[in-house]
Task: structure prediction
Amino acid sequence: MVKRKSECPINYSLEIFGDNWTLLIIRDIMFFDKSCYGDFYQSAEGIATNILADRLRFLVSEKILKKLVSPKNKSKFIYRLTKKGIDLMPIVLDLVEWGTKYNRDSFPKEFMTWLRKDKEGLMKHYREKAKISLANLTP
Amino acid sequence: MVKRKSECPINYSLEIFGDNWTLLIIRDIMFFDKSCYGDFYQSAEGIATNILADRLRFLVSEKILKKLVSPKNKSKFIYRLTKKGIDLMPIVLDLVEWGTKYNRDSFPKEFMTWLRKDKEGLMKHYREKAKISLANLTP
Result:
């Protein structure tokens, strides 16, 4: 078992995804239909291959992502969010809101309009989408 | 100006507090009435002095904290949340909720009961408290 710095729930959360990369991978799966190593590797931030491999392994071990064989290509793996991963959505959206308020941003305009007008509806949509993506691949 | 990895609002947010320590300092100021170097240093997670000094400097430079001379002791500095810092409250509370759901926790019971029953009320209370703490010290 992992020895944590403290039992504070914030500390637990931060030990899991409190690094620059982890939540960016989750963002890509959650909102941008990315699913495999190559997809994440191409993201604007330019994650290094060793860091990407390490973070994916960690997120799978923490049961935030599930690693599955691609149905289209049996030699390829794809990643899906678990329930625990989908539950990170409010945090990710709060980051979008705070980051947009205090810095210019590059999020799709339609997404931002939707988020401002109907956050609950947007969350429901992406939550359902993630659940279906996982269910379609789990035997 | 800081060169960012991308203009994604999530990336911006994570470049600012996407490390294990930054949001723990903010937690301490936001909810546990801590205000000075010695207070943060004593937190359960055991932050190293050089990391603490570095993170405080960074949070001040990003205008998330304001560094002020203590009115009680002119040779001592205290830190207060700015508006930009107070706006991190939804993120911090989402971390509490997610961390509590997936791990045992050590947050005060009364706080957790309040959060579950009336999140808006709790946020209003701590937001006001932070504003007053800052206003009391700003000439």
Q: What stands out?
A: The first strand of chain B starts at residue 65 and ends at 69. Residues 119-135 of chain B form the longest helix (17 residues).
